[in-house]
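Problem 12. The chain below contains 172 residues. Write out its predicted structure in token notation.
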Amino acid sequence: MQVEGLTIRRAEPDDYTALYEMFYSPKLYANTLQLPYPSHELWRRRVAEPGEGVHNLVAVVGERVVGMFSLHAFQRPRRQHAGEIGMSVHDDWHGKGVGSALMRAGIDLADNWLNLTRLELEVYTDNEPAIRLYERFGFEREGLLRQHAYRDGRYADSYFMARLRAPAQVTT
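Solution.
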């Protein structure tokens, strides 16, 4: 499914208000490691000062930010081939192709521009729509993280998933 007018672009500092509002949703932050009640300042810093190796993309329909994809390319010498991703889609836009569009753009960035051969993520075991999306994009379950995070008054398990690709070939 393709959302009419959907574009993917790098997150801009002015996006922080829209991201703050998106992450204020209990349904959304419940599927992340975020705490409820985020501050505007937290999101301003996160978008304006992402840190070394962090690439934030947003999905936009018209002027509205409807999703975010973050890729942290590891900087440690023996892990420079790998990165960790996180993704969230606004509650109103689930099941409309936003997640797929973000994944395509994020994987293109990782594969064709950053030359990452391993992408990693963690996902709660009860987040079946996200697991199906990740598996469609080649992610495989590598392990179970038992009592991984405290969420809504109890511990939740997560899957550790990764996507591998062969290193890029040299062309002459």
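Discussion. The domain at 6-164 is CATH 3.40.630.30 (Aminopeptidase). Students who got a different answer should revisit the alignment rule from Section 12.3.
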